């Protein structure tokens, strides 16, 4: 596949970059974290979405290399804003390497990154075949102080039992539930039940994809903890993040 070959070249030649989208406190006024989002500027095809090329990396044995590139760059950037948490998306395939957790620990040590300032986001859909290696390595990283968030909650297949075994810190409500708030009058019931489930398990609840004030009002009323979406900030460059944080103080 030529796309896979191009991606390999892109990783090696630094044709990738990370954007960051701020996560806001429930009032929407203060930035509490930023999520790293990978971007690939292809020479001929232009900007390609990670929704397209992350699966290509996964199918072609490039996820380890791509994931390591993301970790290194995100750790580098996280040092610039030590007061907020940096979230990094991980593919479950990265845990297929038995020494993945060790690599992360070493990288954090070498780069002087504090574990509790880093949060790893793992997509619910990706966790269908539950491997013991995955759970064991999550546990190693969690014990070292790294935070974990279950991404796109409600869109995939993770069972509630699985959620309790994972011992994550945060649950991110899939943006489809948030966009439904603008369409279906009773859509808040779904979010209410996710919030009460998460609260019972001691999890922080983040709502993704918040696009308007009406959605914000409802999310605040039902007891979400954190918000992310175009209403507040779009994904932006590292220097934009620095400017946003500077404006806040
Ligand atoms: O940024 P955007 O909305 O285009 O992201 C689309 C999808 O790609 C999201 O599901 C997001 O989680 C995923 N994604 C973005 N960056 C990364 C990354 O660095 N690693 C992995 N594994 N997935 C990512
Ligand atoms: O699956 P994950 O949550 O990692 O996906 C993050 C993706 O969601 C990013 O690609 C980002 O561009 C996108 N996103 C962030 N905020 C919004 C929003 O308010 N509306 C929409 N439609 N997409 C958003
Ligand atoms: Mn995410
Ligand atoms: Na998500």
Automatic annotation (TrEMBL):
All residue ranges annotated as the EAL domain in the record: 1-249
Protein name, UniProt field: EAL domain-containing protein
Native source species: Ferranicluibacter rubi
Taxonomic classification: Bacteria, Pseudomonadati, Pseudomonadota, Alphaproteobacteria, Hyphomicrobiales
Shown chain mapped onto the complete sequence: 372 to 620 of 627
